[in-house]
Task: structure prediction
Amino acid sequence: MKSLMPHKESQPTYQILWIERRRVKVPAFAPALRKRGYDVHIVHSGKAALEWLETLSPDLIVLYAASFGTSGWRTATAIRQVAPETPMLLIASPEAPPKPNTPANYILTLPFTNRKLLNRIHRLLPSNDRQWFRKGKIALDEQRRVVRSQGRETRLTPRLVRLLKYLMEHEQEVVPYNKLFTEVWDTTYLGDTRTLQVHISWLRKALEDDPRHPQFIETLRGVGYRFHPQGKSPQA
Result:
């Protein structure tokens, strides 16, 4: 039977905003999610979560209310006001049960297994990618002109969006310079490739941890570029 769980090497990375107390005395679940390939960003207060949500839009929010020893109602309500459409999972404890009107999509009450948590998260994640165009570890929101990589989001120009989208659509292929000029710039002029090089440099700043040693966009000197969705490219 085919597994429904994401695999780090073959499935797109979904981003989870995880809210838990700094020193967790209850079971820690985030490491198991990261092992499964999820991009888990941990914050340690509701205030930090709200600040994070001002600029970023995760695929799922997990409020670990049990780690704070509270019902989580106040934090969940505040989060729902700034992220009304984002699925939210609340983890509660029997000692501090959630209120009936808690604005979470689903509530899990301790104790439970990692498998049960993973199954529930999988069901809450978006069932389609109409907003995010995903390839491996990279997600592109064409409408908002935002790319998500390495746990951060970066706004792109319209041309950078078209350039990245074309490279993503042709993952693992060598895309020649002339093809990029034709598809992205709508020209066959190849007298000067510096414009293309500059745009690739801007994309690397958005995608890479270290743009000087790119792992997603590989340069094939004198030929073109190749996009590696899992970031496995040799140093360019």
Summary: The chain has a mean pLDDT of 86. The chain has eight helices and twelve strands. The two ends are 40 Å apart (CA to CA).
